[in-house]
Specification:
alpha/beta; ten-stranded mixed sheet; binds guanosine-5'-diphosphate; binds 6-O-phosphoryl inosine monophosphate; binds magnesium ion
């Protein structure tokens, strides 16, 4: 009856999709609990790359069911494209995908409002993915939103038009030029596509499975440093990306949660605006981007790159109750002779080991520990016992500084490019 939660510990793109796909055979259900098509989760299966935005990353495991939970915001257009992409490779998601009636819908006008809001912000823009996430969650908390369950009702079109009217008023205030009617054909086709799936009262669906002793993996999106409450506000997304979000985004009580798998890259990246204390605006940063192919899975934007940030990692381990650490992209650092990790910040001559409230407005200097690197031999390691040298010391350092054991180490994008350090996480 346990729920394990897997989430990103940084600013997103930590490799959640790959690791969920790897772990999925151990679970009966994989469930997305927040976010929407701002997410891009990459899976590499038999040398072929798939990027999922809304659909849980368990979809390629035939023995596993998948749920889009109530905490997710769904864009019917993106959803339909994903379903068609899966069909092309022989995956019929109708058999294993369930959608909560309480998940909210992203309308074309939400996307227009996202673009209008960002344009209005000028230099202080968030760097949103422009998928309509913020406006859709605003309508949810403003109690105006449309939910998946509404599409089953005859008056859906009336409700849609009412909300659209509100959005037109807002767009007028922004003085933003848009062409919403041209986007509506795809939207309503996407709505029909959603209707063809099994729509469920997600909270009952998931609790029934828990009562039947089924194993559930809750798949986070974005990253803990993008959380609406505890991230680098206002440069964050609009949902609760932390473990707590799995409870409200699925309808499960906290006492069902067993393990919390926290994923971090061996370095840091961020897409969009906002503070990033260890960012490298130099050749080292360029090398990380090139070596790690750090370009957004959803928008293609270059990701900002920098060294691992321990104050941020310790902060989110505390917020999430992380029980197992998973480090990805360790192979990328093989090009560096020396590896750096920031262990604290220096602020006006004073040391800070935590995340300052006003991080968005102040300059902090990272204080680095430097350690020896590792080479391409890392990609050949199959057994944790073979881990040696700089890599072994690096893992011991991270464990000691974070207080959490490393359970998995990812050494490449492929499904099986993983070293299992905690045998409980073997497939
Ligand atoms: P997600 O949003 O957390 O699922 O991560 P993304 O899919 O947006 O970005 C992670 C990128 O890194 C993808 O292109 C993955 O294929 C790739 N990746 C994941 N793990 C590894 C790894 O250990 N090494 C390398 N080189 N690439 C990885
Ligand atoms: P996955 O699940 C990386 C970032 C955007 C922007 C900020 C707000 O693939 O890790 P939004 O569209 O939510 O209004 O954008 O959050 N962002 C992500 N960055 N990975 C993601 O998802 C992200 N989802 C949102 O770049 O800075
Ligand atoms: Mg991503």
């Amino acid at each position: 009856m346990p729920v394990d939660v897997l989430l990103g510990l940084q600013w997103g793109d930590e490799g959640k999709g790959k690791v969920v796909d790897y772990l999925a055979p151990n679970y009966d259900l994989v469930a997305r609990f927040q976010g929407g098509p701002n997410a891009g989760h990459t899976l590499n299966i038999d040398g072929k790359k798939f990027v999922l935005h809304t659909i849980p990353s368990g979809i390629f495991n035939s023995g596993c069911q998948n749920l889009i939970g109530n905490g997710v915001v769904i864009d019917p257009v993106t959803f339909q494209k994903e379903i068609e992409g899966l069909k092309e490779v022989g995956v019929d998601a109708h058999k294993t995908l369930f959608i909560s009636r309480k998940a909210h819908l992203i309308l074309p006008s939400h996307r227009a409002l996202d673009a209008a809001s960002e344009a209005h912000k000028g230099n202080s823009k968030i760097g949103s993915t422009l998928k309509g996430i913020g406006p859709a969650y605003m309508d949810k908390t403003g109690r105006n939103g449309l939910r998946v369950g509404d599409i089953e009702n005859k008056n859906f079109k009336d409700k849609y038009n009412q909300l659209l009217e509100k959005h037109y008023q807002l767009l007028k205030q922004y003085n933003y030029v848009h062409d919403i009617p041209s986007m509506e054909k795809d939207f309503f086709a996407g709505v029909e596509c959603i209707k063809s799936f099994l729509l469920v009262d997600g909270e009952y669906f998931i609790n029934d499975l828990l009562n039947k002793n089924k194993n559930i993996l809750a798949e986070g999106a974005q990253g803990s440093m993008l959380d609406i409450d505890f991230g680098t506000y206002p440069f964050v997304t609009s949902s609760t990306t932390l473990t707590a979000g799995a409870c409200t985004g699925l309808g499960i009580s906290p006492n069902h949660i067993r393990n919390v798998f926290g994923i971090t890259k061996a370095y840091c990246t961020r897409v969009g605006s906002g503070p990033f204390p260890t960012e490298l605006n130099n050749e080292e940063g360029e090398l990380m981007r090139k070596q790690g192919n750090e370009f957004g899975s959803t928008t293609g934007r270059p990701r900002r790159c920098g060294w691992m940030d321990m104050p941020a990692l310790r902060y989110v381990i505390m917020l999430n109750g992380v029980t197992h650490l998973i480090i990805t992209k360790a192979d990328v650092l093989k090009v560096f002779d020396e590896i750096k990790v920031c262990d604290s910040y220096n602020r006006d001559g004073k040391t800070s080991e935590g995340i300052p409230y006003d991080l968005c407005n102040i300059e902090v200097q990272p204080v680095y520990d430097t350690m020896e690197g590792w080479d391409e031999g890392i990609e050949k390691i199959k057994d944790a016992k073979e881990i040696a040298g700089g890599l072994k010391k690096y893992i011991a350092y991270v464990e000691q500084k974070s207080g959490v054991k490393v359970a998995l180490l990812s050494t490449g994008p492929g499904r099986d490019q993983l070293i299992v350090l905690d045998k409980n996480l073997s497939r």
